[in-house]
Amino acid sequence: MSEKVFNQVELAKYNGQNGQPAYVAVDGSVYDVTGVAAWAGGKHHGNLAGQELTSVIDGQSPHGRKVLKGLPVVGTYAD
Known about the structure:
Order of helices and strands: EHEEEEHE
Strand content: 25-35%
Organism: Levilactobacillus tangyuanensis
Protein name: Cytochrome b5 domain-containing protein
CATH superfamily: Cytochrome b5-like heme/steroid binding domain
Number of domains: 1
CATH architecture: Roll
InterPro entries: Cyt_B5-like_heme/steroid-bd (IPR001199), Cyt_B5-like_heme/steroid_sf (IPR036400)
Shape: globular
């Protein structure tokens, strides 16, 4: 089975709304944040699921990339 590749349009479908899973892309990897309570409804501190958030996690997040450890990787992101 090949790894799923997401572009901006495809990733936007996974916004955590209307029963959809919540995915976010960081540094080329797409993570499933659906089961993370802080991402309930596809929103977390003003950020929306279904987007590429590398600059947010590197520049604004107090926890940085360490929070990504343990999250399922569901594919790669290619703009």
